[in-house]
Request: fold
Amino acid sequence: MQMNQVRQVAEIAVPGAVIGVLAGGVVGVMALFVGHPVGWALTGAVTLGVPLALLGGGYGVVVALGLVRPGVFAPAAILWLVGFPFARLLHETITPVLLGGSPTPPESIPTFLAFQALISPGFAIGFVWLFERLTPAWLVSIKDHNPVAAQVYTRYAEHAARIWEARERKRARRRPAAVATGAAARARQPRSS
Reply:
């Protein structure tokens, strides 16, 4: 892949990376809310936000390369099933080091990773929901100067058209039944004279 293509693909990764940074920011705000000092909250936001941004950006790259179809949950769930626990382990262990302390990994790393893996689908759902809302708008803003973004945007538009057509077919199948049911109900009503 040429350097120009790498830049174009990386540009498509921006929404996923932004979501990771936002998730780290939420962790920082929550740390402040429970009474941690500002330095701890900022450091925690960075030590979780950076790995999540890298993972989210990686998901954007996979979408850009066409390895994942728009709107499909399973690939994101697998990414976060593996990536989220390790991002949390890094966050838990490295935050105290950056604040001048020693590494503090959890007592039982396998149990910690297993628990984080259990909660990762919730993060994956939120990630996909945000990603699918931010990415099309981002693609529209960059597709004129980024041919890879134009291709990905075309895939999103085709996917949206297929979903719309499927929904309309489903509605059309239900309409005749609803009309017939309504007509039968009106026929059964007694006429007033």
Remarks:
- The first helix runs from residue 3 to 12.
- Residues 3-188 form one domain.
- Helices lie at 3-12, 14-33, 38-64, 74-98, 109-142, 147-188.
